[in-house]
Amino acid sequence: MYPFRYERPNDLAEAVRLLQAHAQARPLSGGMTLLPTLKHRLARPSHLVDVARLDALRGIACQGGVLAIGAATPHAQVAASPVVRQAIPALADLAGLIGDAQVRQRGTIGGSIANNDPAADYPAAVLGLGATVVTDRRRIAADEFFTGMFSTALDAAEIVTAIEFPLPLRAVYCKHRHPASGYALVGLFLAHTQGGVRVALTGAAPCVRRWTEAEARLSAGAEDPLAAVRDLKLAPQGLNDDLAATPAYRAHLAGVLLRRALSDSPAPAQA
Known about the structure:
Elements: E1 5-7, H1 12-21, E2 26-28, H2 34-39, E3 47-50, E4 60-63, E5 66-70, H3 75-80, H4 82-87, H5 89-96, H6 101-106, H7 109-115, H8 122-128, E6 132-135, E7 139-141, H9 142-145, E8 146-148, E9 151-152, E10 160-166, E11 170-177, E12 184-193, E13 196-202, E14 209-210, H10 212-219, H11 225-229, H12 247-264
Parallel strand pairs: 1-3, 2-3
Antiparallel strand pairs: 4-5, 5-10, 6-7, 6-10, 8-9, 11-12, 12-13, 13-14
Keywords: FAD, Flavoprotein, Oxidoreductase
InterPro entries: CO_DH_flav_C, CO_DH_flav_C_dom_sf, Diverse_Substr_Oxidored, FAD-bd_PCMH, FAD-bd_PCMH-like_sf, FAD-bd_PCMH_sub1, FAD-bd_PCMH_sub2, Mopterin_DH_FAD-bd
GO molecular function, one term: FAD binding
């Protein structure tokens, strides 16, 4: 780990000022992605600006058909929240599947999406639900937020403050876990929304992505959604290839998880 200066701002405005004043500064929330990166000397920030305790970045509320979660809210709080459980049960289920108990107590939703690890769980929910990422300066649609491996649309010194999830008609998250890390070899978030069906995949490719072929078939209103996707196969080209799984195996897992998600959450009558 390279040396750095630790800063603990008193409010969001001070955090923004610190990040703007130091070009190589990085915000620190739960640190579940950033700290291992620092330990392996894959990053060399001059300053770490700790935003984890800022009240402006915490909290869970549901109003007007939107579930808002503060960026510094730990995974464990999302998993245990009765507000989340009532509004979007699949999101609470997803949070409860992240890593292990220690990771869920420290990791935060904002840190997860800002780092955009290829196998992180929350990006699938953000993209699958068509959420809006709120920062200290603007609002970014999910379809525009995730831009590549470990990269997003965030500008330098821009801080995620909250994520706003529109309530779906129904949603479900399924994943095949890596046996050691708990990360998703493949994770699939299926959401029936007012605008149709959205299907997001994490762990499969270098960046979270929508499975548009599955969305098209499921949005067509087939009487039997399972039959509509029974022969659907995800193309393995461009999928991740590592010691845990080949592209072909990840493509196969995507189909298995899609059918499992449909079995667990059949299309609502009003969709």
